[in-house]
Each structure stands twice: as structure tokens, then as C-alpha cells.
Write a sequence for this structure.
């Protein structure tokens, strides 16, 4: 499978299977028709119609409480798995006021867009540039044992992007705040992919940080099994020849390789890669 094919995986879905999840008339998620049928069992919380599923309670607190009750029930029924005890804000955009908060494990079931901060930990530059790659702990509910960037994680309720990045750098790589603060934003990539009956709708804010030669990441929170310092050539080889990486970080790493000149414009897939990395997911019809 080519690198282009691996990025296309991040955009494969059939939106005909889903109905919009509406709050105050605006779509803030997408719900699989099988779950739509189950939500008819909560008539005081959801208005289920052909054109969408509307959340009835008004106001942040009432919506949050109502969704907490529903999600707890779905967890007990096995329809929501990978419980985190971590709340994510739900809003029309990242910068809009939150409409309610929801348990992180439920965002996929409701097709809610969520946000992550991701860091490329680079050493040196040019053709000899290297990159720190983490191996996710086997206890992780998503992608256990998969390769990942040096740092990455969701933006929890109440955190800014910078605060979330510094927090993740400390927890996942034992990185001091002063060093983490030198990371600079290089863009954001949104993916929308069907997975296990739900939609993985995620915007990842990507950062670069050139690390000192003597820096060695040390995991603190138990979420990373180990780290490897790999040449960018080896990172590219594994991206193209294996399924070793967590699927949603593949576009971020490909973007990093392109920006630092490790993917040549002479590559036959270069233009298609650039266009796909810049594409905003189409919320109607089929994905790629």
C-alpha cells in the first residue's frame, strides 16, 4: 500500500449511513442509523426525524447532564467503549463557545468533531534529520502498540492549544515546559473516517520542535511503551511499507516529510498527496 493509499484511509466513509446530530439547528455531529434507532428510546432528550437527530435540552449544563446520562447507558450496553473519564467540549468550531461537554469515549459514536495537538520531535536538519517516534502502550484503548509521533493528545475541556501541548509534552515525553514552549505550529489536518460503526472526525493541530541532540524522551503517564530515534528515511520507509503507525498520524508525518524536503516534488504522488493533505472533508456522499 502506498503512502497516498494510507492517507486515503483517513477519508473513507459513506455519509448515507449517518444522520446529522443537531443542536440549535446546527449539525455538530453525525450518528449511524443503527444508533439513531436506539436513541428513539430517549424521547425527552432527542427528537429523531428523517433529517436529523436534535438534542432537546437547552443550555450548557442541561445538555451536558442529559448527554452524560445517555452515554452512561450506552456504555453499560456496550455501545460506547474505551471509557476515559475525560470530558471534551462540543462546539460548532474549536474557537466557538462549547454547547456541552461529553465523555471522550463517546465522540466517535456521535460523530462529533474533536481536536488534538500533535508534535513532530525533530533532531538536526537536512538529509540526516531524525525524528523521535513513540510506541503506544498496549493498555491504550486506541491503537495499542502502534507507532506514533513523540507527543500527541486530545485537547481537554478548559485547555488552550498551548496548554494542552505543554501538558502532553510533560506527561508523554517528560519534556520541560520551557522546551515544549519552543514548538511552533505548522498547520492543522482534519480527517473524517468511518470506524467501528462511528465517525472518527478529528482536527489535529500539528507542531514542529527541533530538539537538542542530548534530549531523550521519558514517558511519565504510562501511555508510551518506548521511543526510537529514527532517520526520516526510515520513518518514510515504515510509513510506505507497513501498517506500524496509528492511521490518523500518517497524514501529519507525511506533511512533515514534505515540508522538510524529504518527499521530492518528482515523486509521482506528490501533487495528489499535497492536495489530499490540504483537503477539507466533504460531509456529503462518499469519501475517497
Amino acid at each position: 500500500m502506498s503512502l497516498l493509499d494510507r492517507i486515503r484511509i483517513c477519508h473513507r466513509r459513506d455519509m448515507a449511513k449517518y444522520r446529522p446530530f443537531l443542536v440549535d439547528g446546527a449539525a455538530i455531529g453525525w450518528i449511524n442509523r443503527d444508533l439513531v434507532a436506539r436513541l428513539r428510546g430517549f424521547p425527552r432528550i432527542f427528537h429523531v426525524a428523517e433529517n436529523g437527530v436534535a438534542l432537546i435540552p437547552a443550555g450548557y449544563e442541561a445538555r451536558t447532564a442529559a448527554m452524560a446520562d445517555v452515554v452512561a447507558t450506552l456504555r453499560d450496553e456496550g455501545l460506547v467503549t474505551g471509557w476515559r473519564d475525560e470530558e471534551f467540549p462540543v462546539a460548532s468550531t474549536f474557537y466557538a463557545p462549547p454547547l456541552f461537554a461529553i465523555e471522550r469515549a463517546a465522540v466517535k459514536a456521535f460523530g462529533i468533531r474533536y481536536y488534538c495537538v500533535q508534535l513532530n520531535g525533530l533532531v538536526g536538519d537536512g538529509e540526516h534529520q531524525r525524528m523521535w517516534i513513540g510506541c503506544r502502550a498496549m493498555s491504550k484503548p486506541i491503537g495499542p502498540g502502534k507507532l506514533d509521533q513523540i507527543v500527541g493528545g486530545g485537547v481537554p475541556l478548559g485547555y488552550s492549544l498551548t496548554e494542552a501541548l505543554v501538558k502532553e509534552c510533560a506527561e508523554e515525553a517528560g519534556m520541560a515546559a520551557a522546551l515544549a514552549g519552543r514548538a511552533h505550529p505548522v498547520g492543522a489536518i482534519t480527517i473524517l473516517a468511518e470506524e467501528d460503526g462511528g465517525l472518527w472526525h478529528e482536527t489535529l493541530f500539528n507542531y514542529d520542535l527541533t530538539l537538542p541532540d542530548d534530549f531523550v524522551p521519558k514517558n511519565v503517564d504510562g501511555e508510551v511503551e518506548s521511543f526510537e530515534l529514527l532517520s526520516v528515511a526510515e520513518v518514510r520507509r515504515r510509513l510506505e511499507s507497513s501498517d506500524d503507525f496509528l492511521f490518523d498520524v500518517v497524514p501529519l508525518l507525511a506533511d512533515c516529510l514534505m515540508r522538510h524536503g524529504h518527499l521530492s516534488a518528482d515523486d509521482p504522488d506528490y501533487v495528489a498527496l499535497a492536495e489530499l493533505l490540504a483537503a477539507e472533508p466533504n460531509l456529503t456522499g462518499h469519501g475517497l
